[in-house]
């Protein structure tokens, strides 16, 4: 039976399947795949070492594998998944957005952001998105297809390789600023609508080297618009990842229009699922709230939000809206933003106004791909 999130949001018919890749497979499946090619199973470990620990997907660099076997292994297990269409940088080089073309011509984006003490990467889990949020560039274009596990993982492998090779020098100088510490599934797509592949990607990202990239689960944030059954299922995985809920409105009437999936699962149900995740994982929930002028930024809505969230393990991220081209909506006035923050704080709810990196390079998800189209 399909996963709850996948049941309703099927991939469009006719979408082609990406080629199989090492990062799609568990360590046991890799050994089987290598054996099926007539190679010794330990070659799976060697390949994993090259890909996950050294980011070396060019067979010429695999000097511990006989030259005669390299081509076959590369073709079968490390096919080229994506190519860079272009990079765009801003914030003095500290933010770099990459537009990728996948094997079938589909476009997706990832963003690498350097801060003085950490590096965060924002990745896509789907090409396009089927959730249809009216203020979002990706939502306007609809869903092309789900990304495979390897297509998700490879965005990060490529980012880690760029950092290692000094391709994203930025202005931040410390050693910590060269190491990827945080991954946010907040690029194109609704991660929980591509449930199995996203969970597979989290395993590859967090399995110790060389089976995976050895990153910390605590550094991973998975966002959702509130696919309630998938949220409960995600809690059962036992991850220590952070869950971010894109709420954008505290009342069903407005949320039904801003986040159309709310007509299916209401604010109360979404928050109950979030509190369950917080309980099981021990992690605070992030509530994402794009502040849109005169739409969802009224003081009474802030008060209502505060009442819903108070006394829970939660943090609110207010996101000044980055308007998409041609959109009728724009960011809140500074005084309304301040009043919103104050109203939440009055309920004892921790809140931050997010630093909106990458605005001058079409920083909102989907804008670079929309411009390319
Ligand atoms: S805001 Fe997120 S969930 Fe909504 S359409 Fe855009 S990418 Fe999809």
From TrEMBL:
<keyword id="KW-0411">Iron-sulfur</keyword>
<dbReference type="InterPro" id="IPR013785">
    <property type="entry name" value="Aldolase_TIM"/>
</dbReference>
<feature type="active site" description="Proton acceptor">
    <location>
        <position position="109"/>
    </location>
</feature>
<feature type="binding site">
    <location>
        <position position="136"/>
    </location>
    <ligand>
        <name>[4Fe-4S] cluster</name>
    </ligand>
</feature>
<dbReference type="GO" id="GO:0046872">
    <property type="term" value="F:metal ion binding"/>
</dbReference>
<dbReference type="InterPro" id="IPR004383">
    <property type="entry name" value="rRNA_lsu_MTrfase_RlmN/Cfr"/>
</dbReference>
<feature type="binding site">
    <location>
        <begin position="246"/>
        <end position="248"/>
    </location>
    <ligand>
        <name>S-adenosyl-L-methionine</name>
    </ligand>
</feature>
<comment type="similarity">
    <text>Belongs to the radical SAM superfamily. RlmN family.</text>
</comment>
<keyword id="KW-0949">S-adenosyl-L-methionine</keyword>
<dbReference type="GO" id="GO:0070475">
    <property type="term" value="P:rRNA base methylation"/>
</dbReference>
<feature type="active site" description="S-methylcysteine intermediate">
    <location>
        <position position="365"/>
    </location>
</feature>
<dbReference type="GO" id="GO:0005737">
    <property type="term" value="C:cytoplasm"/>
</dbReference>
<keyword id="KW-1015">Disulfide bond</keyword>
<keyword id="KW-0489">Methyltransferase</keyword>
<dbReference type="InterPro" id="IPR048641">
    <property type="entry name" value="RlmN_N"/>
</dbReference>
<dbReference type="InterPro" id="IPR007197">
    <property type="entry name" value="rSAM"/>
</dbReference>
<dbReference type="GO" id="GO:0051539">
    <property type="term" value="F:4 iron, 4 sulfur cluster binding"/>
</dbReference>
<dbReference type="GO" id="GO:0070040">
    <property type="term" value="F:rRNA (adenine(2503)-C2-)-methyltransferase activity"/>
</dbReference>
<protein>
    <recommendedName>
        <fullName>Probable dual-specificity RNA methyltransferase RlmN</fullName>
        <ecNumber>2.1.1.192</ecNumber>
    </recommendedName>
</protein>
<feature type="binding site">
    <location>
        <position position="129"/>
    </location>
    <ligand>
        <name>[4Fe-4S] cluster</name>
    </ligand>
</feature>
<keyword id="KW-0408">Iron</keyword>
<dbReference type="InterPro" id="IPR027492">
    <property type="entry name" value="RNA_MTrfase_RlmN"/>
</dbReference>
<keyword id="KW-0698">rRNA processing</keyword>
<feature type="domain" description="Radical SAM core">
    <location>
        <begin position="115"/>
        <end position="360"/>
    </location>
</feature>
<feature type="binding site">
    <location>
        <begin position="189"/>
        <end position="190"/>
    </location>
    <ligand>
        <name>S-adenosyl-L-methionine</name>
    </ligand>
</feature>
<comment type="function">
    <text>Specifically methylates position 2 of adenine 2503 in 23S rRNA and position 2 of adenine 37 in tRNAs.</text>
</comment>
<keyword id="KW-0479">Metal-binding</keyword>
<feature type="binding site">
    <location>
        <position position="133"/>
    </location>
    <ligand>
        <name>[4Fe-4S] cluster</name>
    </ligand>
</feature>
<dbReference type="GO" id="GO:0019843">
    <property type="term" value="F:rRNA binding"/>
</dbReference>
<dbReference type="GO" id="GO:0030488">
    <property type="term" value="P:tRNA methylation"/>
</dbReference>
<keyword id="KW-0963">Cytoplasm</keyword>
<dbReference type="Pfam" id="PF04055">
    <property type="entry name" value="Radical_SAM"/>
</dbReference>
<dbReference type="GO" id="GO:0000049">
    <property type="term" value="F:tRNA binding"/>
</dbReference>
<keyword id="KW-0004">4Fe-4S</keyword>
<feature type="region of interest" description="Disordered">
    <location>
        <begin position="1"/>
        <end position="22"/>
    </location>
</feature>
<keyword id="KW-0808">Transferase</keyword>
<dbReference type="Pfam" id="PF21016">
    <property type="entry name" value="RlmN_N"/>
</dbReference>
<dbReference type="GO" id="GO:0002935">
    <property type="term" value="F:tRNA (adenine(37)-C2)-methyltransferase activity"/>
</dbReference>
<dbReference type="InterPro" id="IPR058240">
    <property type="entry name" value="rSAM_sf"/>
</dbReference>
<keyword id="KW-0819">tRNA processing</keyword>
<feature type="binding site">
    <location>
        <position position="322"/>
    </location>
    <ligand>
        <name>S-adenosyl-L-methionine</name>
    </ligand>
</feature>
<dbReference type="InterPro" id="IPR040072">
    <property type="entry name" value="Methyltransferase_A"/>
</dbReference>
